[in-house]
Structures are given as structure tokens and as C-alpha cells.
Design brief:
This protein is an alpha/beta fold and 239 residues long. The chain has a single domain (2-188), classed as Rossmann fold (3-Layer(aba) Sandwich), CATH 3.40.50. It has 10 helices and 7 strands. The chain is globular.
Length: 239
């Protein structure tokens, strides 16, 4: 079976995330997509984040009618004194140990996140241990994707110039790995827009659906004043 990990902060999950997941499921015949909210994002440690239990609860509500979408507790926080950043390489290896050997494992993310891949923990190993599905959008070329790779895996300048003329679509074999570029799915909703809508009480349900909108309202999340956000833990590290 083909299985995908969809990682992120999901603060909060919104219809753009679900649109990308549905497109990836159809394009790559994914039997399951595990939505894995991060406890502590290594590259966003100084940004305030809604407590994990709220973000996980919203994922449960958002995926109730999607039997192939599974909210995961893989990166749930442990004891406060032992909390560490949510490194993707560790999550991928944990999934590998739990899945049947015959399963094909993918990692789903947006192109903006992929452009930071060289700063993640053990990027070369990660790219070889899991197949990446990258939700692309207009304005990006294959050269942008190739240049984001760790230096040891980047193509020569001549190849990069050739890639510059080609949009970020299809499969890209480079640096000993194959990247799958999922085009035609524009995530035109951002978590920042959702939080602004929650604070102003305007248009929230359109972005997140009725169940998640009701939860946000009931729990008083994303209010402009007195927002219930956890204290950011300062720990060095990369994604």
C-alpha cells in the first residue's frame, strides 16, 4: 500500500490542507495519509503556537468524513522536561518501523516548506529514506526545486539553467532521488488568514469548515487579545 505522512504545524488545519491531501491521494493512489502535527517546529521555535491538543482536536474534526485521512500522535509532546524539536527524519524512521516492509512511504508538503529542506536535520538521508510529494504552484520552476536540495545533491549549473525554463511539475530525478511535483492544486488559504478570520469573526467557516470553526469559537482560539497560546520552548535544531 502507498502511505503518506503529511507533516506541519496545522495551526489550524484548513480546507487548503485537505485539498492538497485529496489531490495527492488521487494522483499517487495513497491508501492512507497520516496528518502529523508537530509539537515543536525546529525552524519556527520562536513563533507562538497553539497547544498541541487543540491542533490535534481540530485535525480529528476536519478529517471525520475522510476515511483515508488519519490524525497522528507521532509527534505529540512528552514530559515538559524532555520535550525536543519534532525532527522529520525521526518521524519518518518511526513510521518505517511500524509499517509493513511492502508499503511505499511518501512525505507530503508544500513547495514553500520544501525550499528550506537543506536546513532540516539530515536532509540527504531524509531524501533517500522517503519519497517527497511536493504541492507546487505557479511561479516556481524545476530549478527552484533543484537549488533547494542540499549542496551535495544539487545538479550542475548547466542542468539548473535548463530546469529554469521548466515549471515545477511532474517527476524530477536529481541527486540520486526522485521528487514528485503535484501541480494544479493551489492552496489559496493560509493559516495566517484563518487566524485573522477567527479574530474578526468573519469568513472562518468558509476556510476551515463548520466543525473546526465551531471548535475555534468554543475554545476562544486565535483571538486578537488574550490568545491561549503555549509558551515557546527555545531549543536549537533543524526540522
Amino acid at each position: 500500500m502507498n502511505v503518506a505522512i503529511f507533516g506541519g504545524t496545522f495551526d489550524p488545519v484548513h480546507r487548503g490542507h485537505l485539498r492538497v491531501a485529496r489531490a495527492a491521494q488521487k494522483a499517487y493512489d495513497l491508501g492512507r495519509i497520516y496528518f502529523v502535527p508537530a509539537d515543536i517546529q525546529p525552524l519556527k521555535q520562536r513563533q507562538p503556537v497553539t497547544p498541541f491538543h487543540h491542533r490535534y482536536a481540530m485535525l480529528v474534526l476536519a478529517t471525520l468524513d475522510e476515511n483515508r485521512f488519519i490524525p497522528s500522535l507521532m509527534e505529540a509532546p512528552g514530559e515538559e522536561a524532555r520535550r525536543t524539536p519534532s525532527f522529520t527524519i525521526a518521524t519518518v524512521r518511526s513510521f518505517r518501523s511500524l509499517l509493513p516492509k511492502s508499503d511505499r512511504l511518501f512525505f507530503l508538503l508544500g513547495i514553500d516548506s520544501f525550499l528550506q529542506i537543506a536546513a532540516w536535520r539530515e536532509p540527504e538521508s531524509l531524501l533517500r529514506e522517503v519519497e517527497f510529494i511536493i504541492a507546487s504552484r505557479p511561479g516556481f520552476s524545476l530549478a527552484d526545486v533543484a537549488k533547494a536540495l542540499p549542496e551535495s545533491m544539487r545538479p550542475k549549473d548547466a542542468v539548473s539553467r535548463l530546469f529554469q525554463r521548466q515549471p515545477a511539475t511532474g517527476d524530477l530525478a536529481v541527486g540520486g532521488v526522485t521528487l514528485h511535483l503535484l501541480a494544479g492544486v493551489e492552496e489559496d488559504i493560509s493559516a495566517t488568514q484563518v487566524r485573522a478570520a477567527a479574530a474578526s469573526a468573519r469568513g472562518l467557516e468558509r476556510m476551515v469548515g463548520p466543525a473546526v470553526a465551531a471548535y475555534i469559537s468554543k475554545m476562544h482560539l486565535y483571538k486578537a487579545a488574550g490568545r491561549r497560546r503555549r509558551k515557546v520552548v527555545s531549543i536549537r535544531g533543524q526540522k
